[in-house]
Write a structure and sequence with these properties.
GO terms for molecular function: kinase activity. Keywords: Kinase, Transferase. It comes from Eupetomena macroura. This is Adenylate kinase. It is a single chain. The chain is an all-alpha fold. It has one domain. The chain has 1 helix and no strands.
Length: about 25
């Protein structure tokens, strides 16, 4: 289950970072 959680974080992390960067630019 730990591996599955890590993969889930990797999948959700990139979009979250992109949204954070976009919000910072504006």
């Amino acid at each position: 289950e730990v591996k599955q959680g890590e993969e889930f974080e990797k999948k959700i992390a990139p979009p979250t970072l992109l949204l954070y960067v976009d919000a910072g630019k504006e």
